[in-house]
Design brief:
The protein is of the alpha/beta class and 208 residues long. It has one domain (2-203): P-loop containing nucleotide triphosphate hydrolases (Rossmann fold, 3-Layer(aba) Sandwich), CATH 3.40.50.300. It has helices spanning 14-24, 31-37, 44-53, 66-73, 77-105, 118-121, 139-150, 154-162, 167-172, 184-204, and strands at residues 2-7, 27-30, 110-114, 131-136, 176-179. It is globular. Catalyzes the phosphorylation of the 3'-hydroxyl group of dephosphocoenzyme A to form coenzyme A.
Length: 208
């Protein structure tokens, strides 16, 4: 297998790149999807969240009130760290399971581990990446996307951007940088080039 760790700040265009790689045949393990799975009703992480943050974090049907939790953690670094301590070990464990399963199914698989907070958690994942890819867009572009495409106020968008690693911290771990500040076609072209390189590398890693 060939394992890519793919990251980027919120609204950087990371999802566009991930979807393009998936269309070529990459297996995607999405940390955001796993983060939602581990807090489903009946999961230990949800019970821990209620103990830590109170029953106000639940909606009437017993599911997590993501808006209420987000409003709390994106303005309070200490509470955000507390949430991460609850969820991150469970997300890492599940990601490891899925990656191992994909490698068994297809030894030549290109696996994309999509991790928004990779720069913040590098070294904590139970596997090594063959390549770390950072999808990059300017702060102003990302703020504009959050306001125009996700309906946030500019202040909300600034809180979200500010709660993540800096551009410099992400770039420090990058083997490859995809610039998504420009036209969509240009971002897709860079993703296609990444796929061609990764697919060839996966085959070359195959044991003799």
């Amino acid at each position: 297998m060939y394992l890519i760790g793919l990251t980027g700040g919120i609204a950087s265009g990371k999802s566009v790149v991930t979807q393009r790689l998936a269309s070529h045949g990459a297996v995607v393990v999405d940390a955001d999807v796993l983060a939602r799975e581990v807090v489903q009703p009946g999961q230990p992480a949800l019970e821990d969240i209620v103990r830590a943050f109170g029953p106000g974090m639940l909606q009437p049907d017993g599911t997590l009130d993501r808006a209420a939790l987000g409003a709390l953690i994106f303005t309070d670094p200490d509470r955000r760290a507390e949430l991460n301590r609850i969820t991150h070990p469970r997300i890492r464990e599940r990601a490891g399971e899925l990656i191992r399963e994909a490698a068994v199914r297809d030894p030549d698989a290109v696996i994309v581990h999509d991790v928004p907070l990779l720069a913040e958690t590098v070294g904590h994942w139970p596997f090594e990446y063959d390549l770390v890819v950072v999808v990059e867009a300017s702060t102003e572009t990302r703020l504009r996307r959050l306001v125009e495409l996700r309906g946030m106020t500019r202040q909300e968008a600034q809180h979200r951007v500010g709660s993540q690693a800096t551009d410099a911290e992400r770039l420090a771990i990058a083997d490859v940088v995809i610039d998504s500040d420009g036209a969509l076609d240009d971002t897709l072209r860079q993703a296609d080039e990444l796929w061609a390189m990764a697919a060839a590398s996966a085959v070359s890693k195959r044991p003799e």
